[in-house]
Specification:
Helix content is 58%, strand content 5%. Strand 3 and strand 4 form a beta hairpin. It has 12 helices and 4 strands; from the N terminus they run H-E-H-H-H-E-H-H-H-E-E-H-H-H-H-H. The chain has a domain of 185 residues. Helix 8 packs across helix 10.
């Protein structure tokens, strides 16, 4: 009930929305002695090959719960078009994230283990403990099959399986957030502390929205409200699920996340409608359409 009341308040506040704050490119913190995880000449963005009929099978089996929760068929679609690739390419370039690897629907465990050992931007104690655990999960539970867009700070890699610019910018936002952090290992470990993930997710989503407005991508900004708001609600749903639902009850877990995403869907769509209606008012005079 409290979650619903909070959501209702957010819905009312959404009607008073204003343009996103000005966008500030990243200022990466890199020590001069650190070796780059992506050697000069290596492609920063790599695309995985098609697995034929298996891609839609994975998309509509493992990816179905996420599609239903976020109301988008493009979630975990395992088909990423050139528009989404160009969107993340421009974002990474604008923020100076030249060492971050972006994998588009790709499964490369050997490459990720190499990056884990080479990524000196994160201290070795963190990489060889929690970083190893994260890479083991990546290796035995491939996102190339089960989906789940993510950013791995221990390898400085963005893994995308959804054909959505909002999701690409959001995961890029995590890379930017870590790039600007001096103590990257500690910041990565903090994520296991309850509620810290809510802060990190909000930072990445806010950056995606500001970026979409900055480049005047009206459609992309609206998409951010439609997708990233309910996605944030799923993290809150995860905490409620841990309290109310047994780990052995996958249906209960899914329904909990689905229900708790609903008020955030409402907030996101109201926010999108308000911003869409007022979008022309926020354009500089020289960019406004002529009557």
């Amino acid at each position: 009930m409290r979650v619903w009341l909070l959501a209702a308040c957010l819905v009312l506040l959404a009607g008073c929305s204003s343009p996103p704050d000005p966008y500030e490119p990243a200022v990466p913190v890199i020590c001069e002695d650190d070796d780059l995880a992506t050697p000069p000449g290596e492609e920063r963005i790599e695309r995985g090959g098609s697995w034929g009929f298996l891609d839609p099978v994975f998309s509509w089996t493992f990816g179905l719960p996420a599609k239903l929760i976020l109301w988008s068929f493009e979630i975990d679609s395992h088909e990423i078009d050139e528009r989404t690739e160009e969107a993340i390419r421009c974002y990474m370039a604008a923020n100076g994230l030249s060492d971050t690897k972006v994998r588009l629907n790709q499964y490369d465990p050997i490459g990720e283990w190499k990056r884990l050992f080479a990524n000196e931007k994160v201290g070795w104690p963190a990489r060889y403990t929690l970083g190893v655990l994260v890479n083991v999960v990546y290796t035995i539970l491939p996102g190339r099959i089960i989906g789940g867009d993510n950013y791995n700070p221990f390898t400085d890699s963005v893994n995308l399986y959804s054909n959505l610019r909002s999701v690409a910018w959001h995961e890029g936002g995590h890379a930017k957030d870590f790039a600007e952090c001096k103590w990257k290992a500690g910041y990565a470990f903090l994520r296991i502390v309850p509620l810290v993930d809510l802060y990190q997710e909000s930072v990445a989503s806010a950056d995606a929205i500001r970026w979409a407005y900055h480049i005047r991508d009206r459609e992309g900004e609206i998409e951010c409200y439609h997708v990233l708001f309910p996605a944030y609600g799923t993290y809150i749903g995860g905490y409620v699920q841990d309290i109310l639902v047994l780990p052995s009850d996958p249906i209960g877990s899914f329904l909990t996340r689905l229900v708790l995403a609903l008020p955030f869907h409402a907030v996101g769509r109201i926010q999108a409608a308000v911003r869409d209606a007022a979008y022309e008012d926020y354009l500089p005079p020289e960019e406004r359409p002529k009557p």
